[in-house]
């Protein structure tokens, strides 16, 4: 997955073959914020400008900009899955939290 990070925001990057430009959109928020560029440097500048503008416009309009995910995740899983996760974490010498974080990171290809 192609992505960029800035001020805690993450953007998903795609290539538009027809227009021959890179296109990005902020991920992890409900507001729609997009940007584009023809080079990586141009794309990165447009990304930073879009994030900065999004934050400024949100604050000017009297509402807080949406924040990317906090990093806290509550899961409801069957007890047998919980037991298996606890065992796997212990076997790897990790806490359940660290084991789950590492496993989810791999699954998300980060």
UniProtKB/TrEMBL annotation:
<protein>
    <submittedName>
        <fullName>HicB family protein</fullName>
    </submittedName>
</protein>
<dbReference type="InterPro" id="IPR008651">
    <property type="entry name" value="Uncharacterised_HicB"/>
</dbReference>
<dbReference type="InterPro" id="IPR035069">
    <property type="entry name" value="TTHA1013/TTHA0281-like"/>
</dbReference>
<dbReference type="Pfam" id="PF05534">
    <property type="entry name" value="HicB"/>
</dbReference>
<dbReference type="InterPro" id="IPR010985">
    <property type="entry name" value="Ribbon_hlx_hlx"/>
</dbReference>
<dbReference type="GO" id="GO:0006355">
    <property type="term" value="P:regulation of DNA-templated transcription"/>
</dbReference>
